[in-house]
Amino acid sequence: MRRARYSFDNDDSIAADRHRMLAEVLDPFTIERLSALGGLDGRRCLEAGAGGGSIATWLADRVGPSGSVLATDLNPRHLRAGAGYTVLRHDLSTEPVPDPPWDLIHARLVLSHLPARAEILDRLAAALAPGGTLVIEEWASAYRGLVLAAPDPATATLVERYHDILVGRLLPGNGGDPAWGSAVHGAMLAAGLSGVSTEIRASSWAGGTAGARLIAVNIEQLRPGFLDAGLTEQELDRLSRLADDPRLVIRGHLTYSTAGTASTAGSASTAGTASTAGTASVAGTAK
Ligand SMILES: C[S@@+](CC[C@H](N)C(=O)[O-])C[C@H]1O[C@@H](n2cnc3c(N)ncnc32)[C@H](O)[C@@H]1O
Q1: Which of 21, 35, 136, 267 makes a 20 to 30 Å CA pair with 108?
Q2: Residues contacting residue 76 through CB under 8 Å, at least 6 positions apart
């Protein structure tokens, strides 16, 4: 059986564009949510699956000299050591949570891609310091009815086909669950976190803006899969051009931002248990 692999490899030449677009689309909402948690000065923060590092950079600015930020990724090539945070190559699926306990753990658009997402969430929750907060942000993108406006009906149908293939076949084929965002709240409650809250946000994305341009990036990174699924080279080229056409307007994916807090009594003791032995230290000392 083929092993599930992450869909959007950071080694692809267009991966840096993806990270820039994700930051443009999502950072304002993420920053609003993280800012609402209160002061971060002096806090220890883990940014898991940090991608291009925009949120790690923002956190590094907030924690000040007495705090710290660790940015991890399976492939950390787009992270910049020296930008105020520490970089660690780390696999959330197979390794223990590094260096717990954490005052804040944030992971955005990461766990939904990973088949072991439920166990990973449990491990992250267990790696919180007493009173620490876990923030998981995911797109619930499995919804149909993406197109809000298009130059003609055939174009709208083509874009819907592209989306159906992406969320119904390609992402699940690589172990992803594009509907998982709505399950995070329940998973945090089951993990014993308290004060769990979810905010959900979406807006329209017109061709030429970062959200719509992700269509072209997805096609470049997953082209063989779209061809296997029945789209032609010509249709894929047309979709890539449409990503820049302001006459196409799509519904941005619903962003579920869910936060939960560890009890002040603390429960970081099981953070080290992962499916495969890793090298990071197990949780122990609470701050
Ligand atoms: C869609 S990107 C999101 C990046 C960033 N969190 C953001 O929202 O801008 C997903 C990131 O998760 C990383 N990733 C994928 N599988 C991972 C794993 N098993 N452990 C850690 N990171 C992983 C990828 O390399 C990629 O950088």
Answers
A1: 267
A2: 10, 50, 87, 88, 89
Amino acid symbol at 145? G
Tell me how far apart the alpha carbons of residues 262 and 194 are, in angstroms, rounded to a whole number.
Answer: 6
Give me ligand 1 centre to Cα 17, in Å: 14
What tokens appear for 249 in the block?
Answer: 């307007």
Read off the pLDDT of residues 52-107 as tens digits, 9 standing for 90 and up.
999 999 999 999 999 999 999 999 999 998 889 999 999 999 999 999 999 999 99
Ligand 1 center to 73 CA (angstroms): 6
Domain ranges for the chain: 15-264
DSSP E strand boundaries for 240-287 = 249-251, 254-261
Q: Any residues with CB less than 8 A from the CB of 152 and at least 6 apart, and which? A: none
pTM for this one? 0.91
Distances (CA, A) of 46 to 56, 120, 136: 8, 14, 12
Q: What is the CATH number of domain 15-264?
A: 3.40.50.150
Characterize the bridge pairing of strands 128-140 and 204-206. unpaired
The answer to whether 283 and 272 are in contact (CB under 8 A) is yes
Ligand 1 geometric centre to CA of 87 (Å): 13
- The answer, yes or no, to whether residue 270 has pLDDT greater than 60, is no
**How many contiguous H segments (helices) and E segments (strands) does the chain have?**
8, 10
Say if ligand 1 is within 6 A of residue 181 CB: no
252 lines ligand 1 (CB under 6 A): no
Model confidence at 4, pLDDT cuts 50, 70, 90, reads low
Q: Is the CB of 12 under 6 A from ligand 1?
A: no
Task: Please give the average per-residue pLDDT across 176-200, as a whole number.
Answer: 97
